Each structure stands twice: as C-alpha cells, then as structure tokens.
C-alpha cells in the first residue's frame, strides 16, 4: 500500500512540476489609452529598465545563456555502485539458499547495477528539469514586473 501511495505522490509531483514549469511567455501589451507606437516603444523601454533593476533579471542575458543541463551518460552520483552492492547482497542471500552464493551475488550485482543506472538517468532528468524550471521562473518574475510597470502607464496586459 505504501508503494502505491509513493507512486501516486511521484505522479502528482511530476504533473505539478509540468504545470509549474510551463515556458515563460512574454506579456502582450495593448495601448488602452490610445498611446502612439512611439510612446509605447518609449514606455516599453523604460519599463524594461525598471523591471530589470527591480528584479535583477535580464531576459536577454537569460536567453543568451541556456540553463546548465547534464548530458551524456548518467554517471558520477554513485547510484550504479550502490545498486550493485544492494544487488550483490540480495543475490548472495538467494544464492546461499540455492547453493551457489557466489553466482547469486554476481547476478544480483549485475541487476543492481542496471537498477542504479536507471536511477542515475532519472536523477539527471530531474536536475535538467529543475534547471529549465528555474530559468522559466526567473523570466516570469521579470515579466510580472514589466507588466506591472506597463499597466501603471495605462496599457492592457495579457
């Protein structure tokens, strides 16, 4: 029963993370008080500078530097070694019962290494998703400040 609850919790977290990490969308600005295109351009420039100062976030700099993602084989976290050790212990116990402890430990180590590799890949994917989410959250913070500034100047923001 607790394993089922853990699966449900993981699925819920994955769904929530997907919702929270939707790509940041730049606000759409409409001149609600009949502002000219030149006035809108000046106001947008002023609000960009203000939002950047208030949040410390520069969307151009964020776009120029992609989030740090891990690529390549998922190694280095110790998941494979830990899986091999757990598998070897389990295989040793089963092999001892069956009459060949060494062979059981070897098979258990191989299976444990494979399980550890799967865990390493899952950890790598979670790290990458978190990095992208952090960048999107920073952009959303900047866009909220920009929108607040533009609304204060008489624009409709969507």
Tell me what you see in this structure.
This protein is mainly alpha-helical. It has one domain. The chain is 73% helix and 4% strand. It contains five helices and two strands. It has helices spanning 2-20, 37-55, 59-64, 79-98, 101-152, and strands at 29-31, 155-157. Strands 1-2 form a two-stranded antiparallel ribbon. Helix 4 packs antiparallel against helix 5. The protein is rod-shaped and about 85 Å long. The two termini are 45 Å apart. Residues 1-20 have low confidence and may be disordered.
Short description:
The protein has helices spanning 2-20, 37-55, 59-64, 79-98, 101-152, and strands at 29-31, 155-157. The chain is mainly alpha-helical.
